[in-house]
Write a structure and sequence with these properties.
This protein has nine helices and 14 strands. It is an alpha/beta fold and 254 residues long. The chain has one domain: Metallo-beta-lactamase, Chain A, CATH 3.60.15. The strands form three sheets. A six-stranded mixed sheet has the order 1-2-3-4-5-6. The chain has a six-stranded mixed sheet with strand order 7-8-9-10-13-14. A hairpin with a 2-residue loop joins β9 and β10. The termini are far apart.
Length: 254
Amino acid sequence: MHVQPIPALTDNYIWLLHDGEGSTLVVDPGEAAPVEAALKAQGLRLRAILLTHHHPDHIAGAAALRQQHQVPVYAPMDERIDVATHRVSDGNDVLIESPAARFRTLAVPGHTTSHVAYAGEGLLFCGDTLFSMGCGRLFEGTPGQMLASLDRLTGLPDDTLVCCGHEYTAANGRFAITIEPANAALRARVEQVAALRAMNRPTVPSSMATEKATNPFLRIDSPEVIDWCQQQGASPNDRIAHFAALRAAKDQFK
């Protein structure tokens, strides 16, 4: 199986997963044209579409792709996603015949209330819930919901590849280093990301192990993050307040 990020719009990634015979599924096609171009260039055949949440930059291309290829569309139970042919909710298994793949659906509210992620085949398609060295903004959910969602994702194996929806890694790293300036793994990751972007290469997927070592939103319980949060006035024993302080600071970070 081969996983591939396809750049789209301003900074989105559409994910392709294909086998050695060319059967392909696509995750969060915010527009159809880059998918069609990739399919044609690589001789791939689209077999299924997976959607994580309702925002247009993740679903706007799905209708055109389905019309062209007559494939199933898996999406959360949200009427704002009207292109869905199969609705999924927490704990559902999505079985794709070709390319042969099984994904467990995980409810991960926070960015939106109906957001889901798909975990399987050593991969995590997490939309706008988890980014490399960051997490999504809270447009509909609460800090407690998002923290619980991120805690759940950290329970996945360390070698899970995190396939997120945007190329935000460099900006996220600049923020993360202000929280944990002494974190050696974080400094190394920031340098790696700078080198990749200088070559116009994607910084994702990253591994869950890398995120646990470098992402402040997954490191709520690390002493340096706790200390930073206390300096912002958060109680030392309130994990949700810590997350809320981090998210508020990131929202204001330039």
